Amino acid sequence: PLVTLFGMELGGLLSGAAFTEMVFGWPGMGRLMLHAVMTRDLYLVMGGLLMGAVLLLLGNLLADGLLYLLDPRVREPS
């Protein structure tokens, strides 16, 4: 189902944003994380990774909720 794939993409938005920031020279999380890795700011790197993990979990939770609402096979006990 496409709903689960879209839920997984929420965490991947950070990597796409980082690429866009690098191409256009915009300030943002991607440039901040790259600078943190280059300067070995471990607390900032851990915070960015934690934020990405939380976004991935929230995306999966949202996708599971939408799948429950949209797919009647999931609601029925087997």
From TrEMBL:
InterPro entries: MetI-like. GO terms for cellular component: plasma membrane. The chain crosses the membrane at residues 12-30, 42-63. It is a multi-pass membrane protein. One of its GO terms (biological process) is transmembrane transport. It is found in: Cell membrane. Residues 1-75 form the ABC transmembrane type-1 domain. This is Binding-protein-dependent transport system inner membrane component. The keyword Cell membrane applies. Keywords: Cell membrane, Membrane, Transmembrane, Transmembrane helix, Transport. The keyword Translocase does not apply. Pfam families: BPD_transp_1 (PF00528).
